[in-house]
Amino acid sequence: MIRSLVNGEPRDQVSVLDRGLQFGDGLFETIAVTGGHPCLWDYHMQRLQSGCERLGITSPDVCLLKQEALELIADQSEAVLKITVTRGISERGYKADPYESPTRILALFDWDGPVSGTLKIAVSPRRLGHNSDLAGIKHLNRLEQVLARAACPEDVDEALMLDHHGHVIEGMMSNLFWQEGQRLYTPSLQRCGVAGVVRALILEIAREQGAHIETGDFMLQDILQADALYLTSSLAGVRSVSRISGYDWHARTADVHPLLKEAAGRVFD
């Protein structure tokens, strides 16, 4: 870590009573910094504010977050900025103090910048549980992803995660799109999964262009019929998949779908 702020002060520690530490009671955003600029800032702030509203956490002022983010970035050209917001401090027990102020943490990490090239992926043996109250938001409880990462083979870059019904949901650290001909598909995130900011950008571009992206419940067998697979995230941008470990699948086209190519060009602007 390069440096950090806790509630606007240069610190790298929080109280042992912070509810983010005690219960995972909070949210976070992982933001790419390129050319000293926090990429997709508005998308990250929209997701953070939406998550705070759904969890009943008072959302930090976006202008204050931007001010602190730029202060932290300073002259750092390439970096990763992580913003964490928790419900604040409380004594033991799940009941929160309605008058307690949220904790905001901004931390800056070294990063070499976006990486290009295709990905080799696996299918995780770990499964995602359903919880529509938490689906889509980037809350602090990431134990499913921690366990999936521990089970991930070392020779792959990512792993697809399925739910307990066998529906493909997302990657451990990314969202999934795939292509059949010129049609695009992406899994529904109504019951589990994280609604990524690059996913939001792609869906917005589709609306602008009047294009249709099919969203729904899909099994692994559906994915294996795809001509091309793409994983998206704030740090990876839009990257094509070349192979799925353990499965007889390979990309049937080397050409990135035009809509996804446009999105890829906007991610790190």
UniProtKB/TrEMBL annotation:
GO terms for biological process: 4-aminobenzoate biosynthetic process; folic acid biosynthetic process. SUPFAM superfamilies: D-aminoacid aminotransferase-like PLP-dependent enzymes. It catalyses: 4-amino-4-deoxychorismate = 4-aminobenzoate + pyruvate + H(+). Its cofactor is pyridoxal 5'-phosphate. Pathway: Cofactor biosynthesis; tetrahydrofolate biosynthesis; 4-aminobenzoate from chorismate: step 2/2. It holds the Pfam family Aminotran_4. Keywords: Folate biosynthesis, Lyase, Pyridoxal phosphate. The keyword Lyase applies. Its EC number is 4.1.3.38. One of its GO terms (molecular function) is pyridoxal phosphate binding. Coiled coil: none annotated. It is an enzyme of class 4 (lyase). Signal peptide: none annotated. InterPro entries: Aminodeoxychorismate_lyase_IV (IPR017824), Aminotrans_IV (IPR001544), Aminotransferase-like (IPR036038), BCAT-like_C (IPR043132), BCAT-like_N (IPR043131), Class-IV_PLP-Dep_Aminotrnsfr (IPR050571). One of its GO terms (cellular component) is cytosol. The keyword Lyase applies. It comes from the Bacteria. PANTHER family: AMINO-ACID AMINOTRANSFERASE, AMINODEOXYCHORISMATE LYASE. Belongs to the class-IV pyridoxal-phosphate-dependent aminotransferase family. Homodimer. Involved in the biosynthesis of p-aminobenzoate (PABA), a precursor of tetrahydrofolate. Converts 4-amino-4-deoxychorismate into 4-aminobenzoate (PABA) and pyruvate. This is Aminodeoxychorismate lyase. It comes from Thiolapillus brandeum.
